[in-house]
Specification:
Layout lengths: L25 E6 L7 H5 L4 E6 L4 E5 L17 E6 L2 H4 L11 H11 L8 H38 L3 H6 L19 H8 L1 H22 L28 H31 L6 H27 L14 H4 L1 H16 L16 H27 L11 H28 L11 H8 L1 H33 L7 H15 L4 H26 L3 H4 L5 H34 L1 H14 L15 H19 L2 E7 L1 H12 L2 H4 L2 E6 L3 H8 L1 H4 L1 H10 L2 E5 L53 H14 L26
């Protein structure tokens, strides 16, 4: 691929943004969608030049169009195409596949942005964000606690303290009192102190990744705007100058979560030693030290919660300041407290032996209870917000955020339980030498089979729904293709594709049922573990044979399923690390999940939009200022979301000189329903009023894209009538070979794409004003002025 040195916004080498006046230049800025592509494919030319950007995200042109602004008469047949390629932000490097392990953090971060639309409830909005941040904090503690369970409890405490288990694993021999013949590291406290390095290293790794990814992806300064252009009148925060730059909050949350992880490790080590020192006859000095350390741990935990609760996002200006030393000093203070705890635990004590499980088992129950209560309260707040401005299109009537937060907690529990279960099975080959993981984790594993049965039922319901829709669509397909009666198989395939695409709209019901069942089953598992303090198989002994058999089957099957799920997740990430095609597939997940800034969890995968949106905003604003020309932002799929976000960030005067062409767009179908506070009808309506013009293309066979659904009273219709897919039912003179069913891809192949682009450019021409309310002959929207011939 040919490359040139970076140029100024109009293609000049010095980058000067002098405006020579209206030149008639026209630019089409193409933004690709999920999965990414190459600039050669986007521009339809093997010779492309990078005009600005770097190896992560850049703007490309055809080699022949590098200086097109100086030759406007040469481009009267159409606009100069530019391609913004951002796929490396999500699927470029193999190490990004490891972000799959951060999936629960990403999910709970999404819950923050799923707040329903509201009016005049500022305190409730702040409470909503606070509750989601607390759920995110609990997930960090859960992850570190799971690492402590594996390293401290299962390996150092149980296996190393049991002769049979230590003999099977020679690498633990130096920690075993019997195998090492009373070696220096064989004391329980010293074993725990050494094993604590594992969760401590995990916490440090999360801190490092969060800091490094912030510097690589999210540290892009947004454009400065005049105060009068900051408000648009629309009900969305996406137009605010500081929306895509939240350095202070991310740094604040990073310090709090890092300190929480270190304090969790300190509590896991110190609680075991303090419990022994409180026994009768123990050394008084160590008992006092243990009580003092526990008090300091409680004070540290309170400080962490205070930091998380104290402040949310500031979006009306770029939040580039840093907090005072008190907040920034939390991680070093927590690390110092951890070091003191390790020294305290490593002190030699008479009669201290490791038996049973570590005393920290109730911590998992407390975490599960706290997460359930937080989700329930969050649901109440979300429902109260929804009632102030009901939106029937909003997913789950405003409860999408709490449901997704519940899903994030469930994923965190499954991953934590899966690691603990597999580690226990590996260490305890006979299944009798060590007690194993906490009882609650076994109960949680036992509810996986019933949940899978429910998912199978939901899958059957979706399949029946798709069959019914496909049967009904056959008549519609026959009407649209009058000459297709001779190929009923083709008709069935088209109808089936439409039916499968319509299942996207059923996702809220599936998520609602799944999350409700997860909450109820999780509550049942917590109650069973707290009441019986035994595994389901043991607790059901003496009951009816069917009950006992079901309990043991669910326990065994759930243990294997929960472990298998985690192993598959790791294997998927490993394959993506080696296989570029698989890496791109996984990258599609992050295209959707990491669009939003890290507002609830600092260890979530980085937000690529904090790089992409400023890139697009700067390019659009500087090009229009330098040339005075016309610009169409042409966005496909997720690219249309980036295009809309960039348009919101433009100054008002620039926004009026820009047109939007979206196709295969999830702006309303996904984002408008799941994120109504930011992409609801009022927000999209305000964007429609403020850009010069906007047209949207979609197909009934597209499972992602859909109509924007803005009524005519908000201006000219945005949506064109659904495009035909396929273009022809059978072989015709124009299509001698069978036309493929395109679904979500290749919208440019439809003649309607070029037609709508010409109309948008014609509307933008300053010398040819176009009526805003003219109607298309097909009833799909504004026809615009006559299109000049090439």
């Amino acid at each position: 691929m040919e490359r040139a040195q970076e140029r100024g916004p109009a293609g000049s080498t010095d980058g000067a943004a002098t405006r020579p006046g209206p030149s008639g230049a026209a630019l089409e800025l193409l933004v690709h969608g999920v999965g990414g592509t190459t600039p050669e494919v986007m521009l339809g030319d093997p010779r492309t030049v990078r005009v600005t950007g770097d190896d992560i995200a850049a703007v490309f042109r055809r080699a022949d169009d590098v200086d097109a602004e100086r030759r406007p008469d040469d481009r009267r047949d159409g606009p100069v195409p530019e391609a913004y390629v951002w796929c490396n932000l999500t699927s470029g490097n193999g190490t990004r596949a490891l972000w799959l392990l951060l999936l629960p953090f990403m999910v709970v971060n999404l819950a923050h942005w799923m707040r329903p639309t509201t009016r005049g409830r500022t305190r409730a909005v702040r409470l909503y964000g606070l509750l989601v941040r607390l759920v995110g904090l609990s997930l960090t503690v859960l992850l570190v606690a799971a690492a402590c369970e594996v390293a401290l409890d299962l390996a150092a405490w149980q296996c190393a303290g049991t002769r049979a288990c230590a003999e099977r694993h020679s690498w633990l021999g130096f920690l075993s009192p019997e195998v090492s013949d009373g070696g220096w590291w064989s004391l329980p406290g010293r074993r725990l102190a050494l094993a604590a390095l594992v969760p401590t290293a995990l916490t440090g790794l999360l801190w490092y990744l969060s800091l490094r990814t912030w510097n690589a992806y999210e540290s892009q300064q947004p454009m400065t705007r005049d105060p009068e252009s900051e408000e648009t009148g629309g009900r969305t925060a996406l137009n605010r100058p500081g929306f895509w730059y939240g350095r202070r909050l991310v740094a604040r949350l990073r310090t709090a979560h890092t300190a929480a992880g270190l304090l969790t490790v300190a509590a896991a080590v110190g609680s075991a030693a303090a419990r022994h020192d409180r026994e009768p006859g123990g050394p008084a000095v160590l008992a006092v030290l243990g009580a003092l350390l526990e008090a300091l741990l409680v004070a540290g935990a309170c400080a962490v919660v205070w930091v998380v609760c104290r402040r949310g996002r500031t979006e009306r200006r770029p939040d580039d300041a840093l907090d005072a030393g008190l907040v920034r000093g939390l991680p070093p203070a927590a690390l110092a407290l951890l070091a003191l705890t390790l020294l305290y635990a490593g002190w030699e004590r008479d009669g201290w032996e490791s038996a049973g499980r570590l005393p920290g088992d109730p911590a998992f129950g407390a975490l599960a209870l706290a997460q359930g209560l937080l989700v329930v309260v969050l649901a109440g707040v979300a429902r109260a917000l929804y009632r102030t401005a009901p939106d029937r299109r909003a997913a789950m009537r405003g409860l999408a955020g709490p449901a997704v937060a519940m899903l994030g907690c469930a994923l965190g529990g499954v991953m934590s339980g899966g690691v603990s279960q597999r580690m226990s099975d590996w260490l305890d080959g006979t299944g009798t030498s060590i007690p194993g993981p906490p009882v609650l984790l076994t109960w949680q594993a036992s509810v996986i089979p019933p949940l899978l049965v429910l998912l199978l039922v939901l899958g059957g319901w979706l399949a029946r729904r798709a069959w019914l829709v496909a049967r009904a669509e056959r008549a519609a397909v026959a009407r649209e293709y009058p000459g297709g009666a001779g190929d009923p198989g083709r008709t069935r395939r088209i109808a089936a594709t439409r039916a499968m695409a319509s299942l996207t709209d059923r996702a809220p019901r599936v998520v609602a049922v799944t999350c409700a069942a997860t909450l109820l089953l999780g509550a049942g598992a917590l109650a069973g573990a707290m009441i019986t303090d035994r595994t389901p198989g043991v607790a059901s002994r003496g009951s009816h044979a069917v009950v006992h058999g079901a309990a043991e089957t669910a326990q065994a099957l759930g243990s294997w399923l929960i472990g298998l799920g985690f192993v598959l997740l790791v294997a998927c990430g490993r394959r993506a690390y080696r296989d570029a095609s698989a890496r791109r597939t996984i990258g599609i997940l992050w295209d959707v999940g990491t669009f939003w800034p890290r507002a609830a969890h600092p260890f979530a995968p980085p937000c690529y939009a904090e790089r992409a949106v400023p890139d697009l905003t700067w390019r659009i604003a500087t090009w229009t200022e330098a040339t005075g020309g016309r610009l169409v932002i042409s966005g496909h799929s997720q690219g249309s979301v980036l295009a809309a976000a960039a348009a919101w960030q433009l100054p008002k005067a620039t926004r009026k000189r820009v047109a939007l062409l979206t196709y295969g767009s999830p702006l309303e179908r996904l984002y408008g329903r799941w994120f109504p506070a930011h992409f609801g009808p009022d927000a999209l309506g305000s964007l429609h009023r403020e850009v010069d013009c906007w047209r949207n293309l979609y197909r009934l066979t597209d499972p992602i894209g859909g109509p924007v659904r803005l009524p005519g009273d908000r201006g000219p219709e945005v949506d064109r009538a659904p495009l035909k897919d396929p273009l022809a039912h059978g072989r015709t003179g124009a299509h001698p070979l069978p036309a493929p069913i395109l679904g979500h891809s290749d919208y440019q192949a439809d003649p309607a794409f070029a037609e709508e682009r010409r109309r948008l450019l014609a509307r933008l021409r300053p010398e040819v004003p176009a009526p805003r309310r003219a109607e298309d002959p097909d009833g799909g929207g504004p026809a615009g002025p006559p299109v000049p011939s090439a």
